[in-house]
Design a protein that fits this description.
16 helices, 3 domains, Double Stranded RNA Binding Domain, 4-stranded antiparallel sheet, hpI Integrase, Chain A, 3-stranded antiparallel sheet, 7 strands, DNA polymerase, domain 1
Length: 409
């Protein structure tokens, strides 16, 4: 049944026997009576239906057949879809094909999140064979200076997806996300625009006072921060630690490759101080985490950061200078403890720098790493970490023995 609704001549509301309602415009095009669907009610309101009807009539007056134009647009879309795939689909197919290449689920998730946040709004719906250099620049330029590291990684990921699309036959020609001889000429080098900001670190001479204040504080966050300080490990490595990784009798913590930034197993010698700390911790039934959050999951990074902030604020409140970085004067943060340790090794000990780099799980030469991963080198690193613990506790009165057994005169 058709009901004229007024407002535009020929506009009707069609009600079918099953009760569905649609807008219908009856017009004459080239001498033929035609009916043009304008959408269903209530998705399309009366006001919207009238606007669409007026637009269709305006097209007819200009010699355009709205029905044929719709058919042509639909045919063009279908042809385009047959010619290729969208960037979003190409990303999904690339990730599926490369699933085994991702060492862990976190890496895969980082890939997806970066592309979803920055690339998909501009490129997601585009067919891969239509993406140009200008399209890639539209994604990168807004964050190239403010989030340089992220933008650089994003560029590489876009390049990888488009490379896959080329090999899979969905596009031809140069890769518009390629750096050399391409985007390099249009964007400043990442190294020149990146603002390297070191993490604020507790000063070497302040470390014993900071550590003493830390030990006075209760809470699982304070204990996690204490272990991070004693082992010079990263926050995420401490927060994700499980009891199966730790051998208290041998004084050894073996962090698997899947949890390491460099994706290599890392062996951490545990000093007597670290072992005592771990032995005193409660173990929750059916929870393997060493430092679980109150609700049972993994502790957040903010827990350690908040503990650092409270230590700084409490020291100032008691008349002290707080715990600030020597250069930037900013309050120290958990990750800065690794810098404190590295500076201590360099300035106050004779331990080799390579040994400190291995302790920090930094990338070093393969030969060096192979050497320091042997059992005896783990024990020499244990001596270094023991001296570090003594410094934190304020018990180290002179420069510690180096790896050859000599002291500074």
């Amino acid at each position: 049944m058709l009901f004229a609704v007024g407002g535009v001549s020929g506009l009707n509301l069609q009600i079918t026997p099953n009760g569905s309602r649609t807008w219908l415009l009856r017009v004459t095009i080239g001498g033929k009576r035609r009916e043009i669907g304008l959408g269903g009610f209530p998705e399309v309101t009366l006001a919207q239906a009238r606007d669409r009807a007026r637009e269709a009539k305006d097209q007819i007056r200009r010699g355009i057949d709205p029905i044929e134009e719709r058919k042509a647009a639909r045919a063009a879309l279908m042809a385009a879809q047959r010619r290729g795939i969208t960037f979003a689909d190409a990303t999904d197919k690339y990730l599926a094909a490369k699933l085994d290449a991702f060492k862990n689920a976190k890496h895969r998730q980082q890939w997806q999140n970066t592309l979803q946040t920055y690339a998909m709004p501009e490129l997601g719906a585009m067919l891969v064979h239509e993406i140009t250099v200008r399209d890639v620049l539209r994604v990168l330029e807004p964050i190239w200076r403010s989030k340089t590291e992220t933008a650089s990684r994003l560029r590489g990921r876009i390049e990888a997806v488009l490379s896959w699309a080329t090999v899979a036959g969905h596009r031809t020609g140069d890769n518009p996300a390629r750096w050399a001889g391409n985007l390099k000429e249009l964007l400043p080098a990442a190294a020149k625009v990146a603002k390297q900001r070191n993490h604020p670190a507790v000063q070497i001479d302040d470390a014993p006072r900071w550590f003493a204040d830390l030990r006075k504080r209760d809470g699982i966050g304070a204990r996690a921060l204490e272990l991070a300080a004693l082992t010079a490990t990263r926050s995420q490595e401490v927060r994700g630690a499980v009891w199966d990784e730790i051998d208290l009798e041998a004084g050894l913590w073996i962090i698997p490759a899947v949890r390491m930034k460099m994706e290599r197993e890392h062996r951490v010698p545990l000093t007597p101080e670290a072992v005592s700390l771990l032995e005193a911790l409660p173990r929750l039934k059916d929870n393997p985490l060493v430092f679980p959050a109150p609700r049972g999951g993994q502790m957040s990074d903010m827990t350690l950061s908040a503990a650092m902030k409270r230590l700084h604020a409490a020291d100032i409140a008691s008349g002290g200078p707080g715990f600030t970085d020597r250069v930037s004067k900013r309050p120290a943060v958990p990750h800065g403890l690794r810098s404190t340790f590295r500076d201590w090794v360099a300035e106050r000990t004779h331990f080799p720098g390579d040994m400190a780099e291995v302790a920090l799980a930094h990338k070093v030469g393969n030969a060096v790493e192979a050497s320091y991963r042997r059992g005896d080198m783990v024990e020499k690193r244990r001596a270094m970490m023991t001296a570090w613990a003594e410094h934190l506790e304020g018990r180290l009165k002179s420069k510690p023995l180096d790896h050859k057994g000599s002291r500074e005169s």
